[in-house]
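Hey all, quick one. A colleague (J.T.) asked me to put the 2-acetamido-2-deoxy-beta-D-glucopyranose job into the tracker so the inputs and the structure tokens live in one place instead of scattered across chat threads. No bug as far as I know, just bookkeeping. Sequence used:
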Amino acid sequence: MAPAVLWLLTVALLSISTSADVQMKVANNPADQLVDVLNKNRTAHKASSLYNNAGLACIALQYIKAYEGDCGAVGGADAKKPADSEFAATFTPNCGVQVSSLSQITGRLLGCQTKYVKPSEAFSEILMKNEKSINIVTDKNHTEVGAAVSGSDGGSPYFWCVLFSNGKANSSFTFEGGEPRISTPGCFSGANDECSGTHRSQTLYLWPYVAAALVTVGYGLGL
Ligand SMILES: *[C@@H]1O[C@H](CO)[C@@H](O)[C@H](O)[C@H]1NC(C)=O
Ligand SMILES: *[C@@H]1O[C@H](CO)[C@@H](O)[C@H](O)[C@H]1NC(C)=O
Ligand SMILES: *[C@@H]1O[C@H](CO)[C@@H](O)[C@H](O)[C@H]1NC(C)=O
């Protein structure tokens, strides 16, 4: 390997481990941070700030899990999405959310990338890549939001999912027994829990950089 390349690699590795450390300390929960970025964008567009609903967010994490780590199924010609029946049949019971409290999903954003990025970058560089996405984010019909991020096994690839609903904040997507059921791996918003399950070790963190090919897929769907 030429010395210049080696030097570059070393610098890359150094900066990665530094940013991983910072991430650990600063990030309490990347899903909550994503909601924060999204709500700031909404209010900047004169739309209301949305209620961060943990039940809806837990369902967003189940939505991610339905892809079983297959980034290629998120967008493009082979794009798939879980059947609507999955919400009541699988996602809701996995979260311990009361089926009777399900409300309409008024929008969803989903993105997948081999590299872990900060929530603000996931928002602007992955989820908002599609032109329709900004309309979904700023839609006045939403009242609440739930976000989730997960690696399939706690590592790459990283999926980001945001679900929107027009339900009532206090009476939709409520947990049986009132307490959020925390499911892992992955992080979801609204539950006031610290979560860094997406970056467990620096080894996992490294491979996306070493593998030269980056897969980035993002899509948005209004419903
Ligand atoms: C909201 O986010 C979109 C996508 O990242 C960006 O283009 C737009 O400038 C943002 N709006 C504001 C007011 O920050
Ligand atoms: C928002 O709600 C209005 C009134 O209920 C409806 O006409 C419109 O289609 C909705 N927009 C979207 C994007 O769902
Ligand atoms: C939910 O209900 C509680 C008590 O009834 C109230 O204090 C709280 O502000 C409500 N939250 C929202 C988001 O409506």
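Adding what we noticed when we looked at it: The chain has a mean pLDDT of 78. The chain has one domain: 28-222.
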